[in-house]
Amino acid sequence: MMEPIPGESKKRVRAKPATKREMSQFHTDEYVDFLHRITPENAHQFSKEQSKYNVGDDCPIFDGLFEYCSISAGGSMEGAARLSRDKCDIAVNWAGGLHHAKKAEASGFCYVNDIVLGILELLRYHQRVLYIDIDVHHGDGVEEAFYTTDRVMTASFHKYGEFFPGTGEVRDNGIGKGKGYAVNVPLRDGITDENYRSIFQPVMTRIIDFYQPGAIVLQCGADSLSGDRLGSFNLSMRGHAACVQFIKSFNLPLLLLGGGGYTVKSVSRTWAYETGLAAGVELRGGKLLLAVWPKLTIGHAQ
Ligand SMILES: [Zn+2]
Fold first, then answer.
1. Assigned domain for 219 exists
2. Residues within the annotated binding site?
3. In this structure, is the dihedral angle defined by the CA atoms of residues 35, 65, 102 and 54, taken in order, positive or negative?
4. Is 36 in the active site?
5. What is the pLDDT, as a whole number, of residue 8?
6. Ligand 1: distance of its center to the CA of 38 in Å?
7. Which candidate, 221, 209, 65, places its Cα nearest to that of 140?
8. Which domain holds residue 243?
9. Entry pTM
10. Is residue 15 part of a domain?
11. Which of 3, 28, 94, 101 is deepest in the core (most CB within 10 A)?
């Protein structure tokens, strides 16, 4: 996690991995316990639970699964806590952004929803938190978690139409007290930087003016980039990063998170570039990147 503190300095923080109890602020105890106990070796004893919790196919069991979830969630929670205590202006956790995970179900490579846990932490200090999702997939897990409240507004820009997870229709906008506090922008294949910007900027300006959030969480899934193995948008690195730059310009406490991204070279390049933007540095080429990199000391949650 990297955090600029006053005076443009950057700092890497080693976040404490999230505990089972912390994960249970959103997830059920039974589901968290299952994630804690299951291993590739004992998986055969849990066949009933595997289908109940949707673990096995898209969400495989691997060595260190629980530790991975703890690190991802701990990074987002620590970032949120530091933002709330005014210890930084921007916190970054590229190991987070796992937006599909549900209260008692894994989904789309996501097991523990670090984003929901981070937002819950922000809600201890802020009356209203805005969540923005630029992953190519709908941010369904986060939307569902806050669908009935006006204390979190969610805005997801995603491919829609015969595409995972299948939700995020434009008319889905919250229920009860949450009515009007979920925004969905369904998009088609091949959207370009210019078209994306022409939707993203006015929509976000309107939302931020209207909602006046105390803090913003931006999920920067990089599967919306051109050439992604799963996504089919046509965004360049700069077009993607323009979203980060634009949201940063509102000068609100900002938690930047990772997410999807299946063409690894583009993911690493884009998140490195966006880390630079967060720190107020524009990275232009390999040489400059190398010159700046040691000062950025970006890292994962641990
Ligand atoms: Zn995705």
1. yes
2. 58, 108, 135, 137, 223, 262
3. negative
4. no
5. 52
6. 25
7. 221
8. 20-296
9. 0.92
10. no
11. 101
